[in-house]
Amino acid sequence: MKFAEDYFEDDQARAWYTNMVQHVLDHAPACLGGFETKRVPLADDTWDGRVEWKIACPCGSDSGKILGYSLAGLQPSYDGPTVFVTPLAFQCSACEQVIEIIDTDKHGYDGELGHGAATIRGEGARTTFACQSCQHTTFRLVTCFQHSQFDIIEDEPELEPVAQNYFDWFECQASCMNCGTEQSVGDYELA
Ligand SMILES: [Zn+2]
Ligand SMILES: [Zn+2]
Question: What are the backbone dihedrals phi and psi of residue 18, each rounded to the nearest 5 degrees, phi first?
């Protein structure tokens, strides 16, 4: 494995960091516990702080609807492209099971530390995300988790087995099953 930024003080620091990166590449975060997960290989075998997981329903289907809250509905001043905030869920096209993806209040660095969500989130009935090109509502999803550093794990080694849950940024990427357009459902700073 190579590193996009190589700033290690010594071989020991590099070995420790490499071990942590391998851990988060081998273990999907707990918030994806309801899914079958498959990691997307690192581009050029280079770690740039981000790990991506394809997610699928345990029934085997990887296409479904995205349920969440439109940012524009919660924040009338927002006028950018459609962005959804959490709690986000996936509803399988084949078996209709609803599986939770992420809740920024509980998941990620701040959520794990009980700091709550700095990111706006919704409550109550969710709406369905629609393709920004064709309005279709069925997608394949890739979830992206960023680990900018592992400082808290270095300070608290007992957290090593759950380092994958201390991601500091998240993005849900969707590929439209009708027109193929790749789009971001939402991305959140979590630390
Ligand atoms: Zn299913
Ligand atoms: Zn589309």
Answer: -60, -40
Tell me the per-residue pLDDT of 58-106, one tens digit each, with 9 for 90 and over.
Answer: 999 999 999 999 999 999 999 999 999 999 999 999 999 999 999 999 9
Asked whether the whole model's pTM tops 0.85, one would answer yes
The CA 81 to ligand 2 mean position distance, Å, reads 14
State which residues have CB under 5 angstroms from ligand 1, the bound ion: 57, 59, 61, 92, 94-95
How much distance in Å is there from the Cα of 173 to the middle of ligand 1? 19
32 Cα–ligand 1 center, Å: 15
Which pLDDT tens digit goes with each residue over 128-183?
999 999 999 999 999 999 999 999 999 999 999 999 999 999 999 999 999 999 99
CA dihedral 103→127→133→190, nearest 10 degrees, is -20
Q: Report the Cα–Cα distance between both ends of the chain, in Å, rounded.
A: 26
